[in-house]
Amino acid sequence: ANGNDIKGQGFSNNAKIGEIINSSFVRNSASTTFDGVDAQGGAIWTDQDLKITSTDGYESLFDGNYVSQNGEVRPEAIYVDNSELTLETKTGGKFLFNDEINGKDYKLNVVGDNTGVITFNNNIRNAEISLGNNTVNVTEGSYLGNNNSLTLNSGTLNINNLGSAPVHFNDFSLVGGQMNIDVVDVLPWVP
Asked: How, if at all, do strands 72-74 and 66-69 pair?
């Protein structure tokens, strides 16, 4: 990122905001048509550690956020630059991500009290992902295999569709918890 990049049009956290509680981000965008200028984080851009908490049954929704660069549109809600993003659920809190999470040199910590549900219906890119004490639902296995590392510490990871394409991780650790895969496409063996 350089000083001219278009960053987080919904919320730009370079002033150490720390925590956002029970909030949704819908239809935010970061756009540019200038060469050499990147659009990052349609809803949130951060270069500081940030915790987003959903509590007391609230569903934090990320939907319709995008970045647009020279006419190319990508459904990116959050961009994390060299810091940590923590998604925390408490007392039945939920997250629904219909947009991507992206960044550079960052950690994504998904934590909770074993009562929350986080659903990812789009890609997580370039992250060191740590999951614990939640039920995490991922619509497509490929959403996790975008230059990521993954550690499942506790809780449950449900992958709805693994598909037939390989899912690659930089590093994968199953420390505890449970991983469920609902559909796996098996290609026929051809001699």
From this structure: antiparallel
163: left (phi over 0), alpha (psi -120 to 50) or beta: left
Q: Is the pLDDT of residue 30 over 70?
A: yes
Residue 15: its pLDDT value, please?
63
Q: How many CB atoms lie within 10 A of CB 59?
A: 14
Contacts of 72 (CB under 8 A, 6+ apart): none
In tens, the pLDDT along 80-99 reads 999 999 999 999 999 999 99
List 52's β-bridge partners, or say none.
20, 87
Identify the DSSP state of 4: T
pTM of the model: 0.90
**Distance between CA atoms of residues 153 and 38, nearest Å:** 34
Question: SS3 of 141, please?
Answer: helix
- pLDDT for residue 3: 46
- Contact between 126 and 102 under an 8 Å Cβ cutoff? The reply is yes
Residues pairing with 109 in the sheet:
86, 130
Check residue 73 and give left, alpha or beta (phi > 0: left; psi -120 to 50: alpha): beta
